[in-house]
Recover the amino acids of this structure.
């Protein structure tokens, strides 16, 4: 199940490969077209779970369109008990530091597959080098 979380990376990798090929083609004044491919790594993934991940979105957009999701252990996320200042009431530990999850990053999903109960975070680094959270799905114990 956790291996599926990196499927977003395949989409991003395909996009980066296409952009790189386009840049090389433009430099050589020769059009180049590349296509992403499914390497079969997720062939045994439950189709319902894959469909659920593919449609996950927060107020910041589709989760998998920007960063890889990472399953996090229960000890690496918790509730803050407060939703002051637009906070979600959740925080996650990334690279040893606790980061408050913005309300706009929390994914509310009524149709979460029963087979997947882990907490998942989609972190990224902004232009200033600060860790940000695109999406967060609380674990089933929330």
């Amino acid at each position: 199940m956790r291996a599926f979380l990196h499927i977003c990376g395949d989409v991003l990798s395909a996009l980066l490969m296409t952009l790189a090929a386009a840049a090389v083609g433009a430099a050589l004044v020769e059009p180049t077209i590349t296509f992403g491919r499914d390497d079969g790594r997720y062939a045994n993934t439950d189709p319902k779970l894959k469909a659920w991940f593919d449609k996950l979105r927060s107020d910041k957009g589709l989760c998998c369109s920007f960063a890889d999701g990472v399953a996090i252990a229960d000890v690496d996320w918790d509730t803050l008990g407060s939703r002051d200042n637009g906070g979600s009431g959740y925080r996650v530990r990334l690279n040893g530091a606790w980061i408050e999850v913005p309300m706009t990053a929390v994914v509310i999903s009524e149709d979460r597959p029963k087979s997947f109960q882990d907490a998942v975070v989609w972190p990224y680094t902004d232009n200033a080098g600060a860790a940000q959270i695109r999406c967060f799905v609380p674990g089933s114990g929330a």
